[in-house]
Design goal:
This protein is an all-alpha fold. It contains 5 helices and no strands. Helix 2 packs parallel to helix 5. The protein is globular and about 35 Å long. GO terms for molecular function: DNA binding.
Length: 88
């Protein structure tokens, strides 16, 4: 009986490690992309509302980006935003 409980506990640990929200490499990539984007925004002399409009996102979404809310963005979204931001 204790073996069955151990297997159940082990399976629970494995499912936690493979959960997409906890993938460390993915979070590192997102963080790196967010830093690049926020640096480009900081170099721009445009108002945030204008930057959000040019990037095709809402001002609230830009605020989430600038606040470092990594969980709000996928890697693909961040790559797209990186390509759309222009530095003046």
């Amino acid at each position: 009986m204790s073996t069955a409980r151990l297997m159940t506990g082990w399976e629970a640990l494995e499912s936690t490690r493979t959960a997409p929200d906890l993938d460390v490499r993915e979070l590192e990539k997102r963080t790196r992309l967010m830093r690049i984007i926020t640096r480009r925004i900081a170099l721009s002399e445009r108002p945030n509302r204008d930057i959000a409009h040019r990037m095709g996102i809402s001002p609230q979404k830009l605020s989430d980006l600038l606040s470092g809310r990594v969980e709000q963005f996928t890697i693909d979204e961040l790559k797209t935003l990186r390509e759309t931001i222009d530095v003046d």
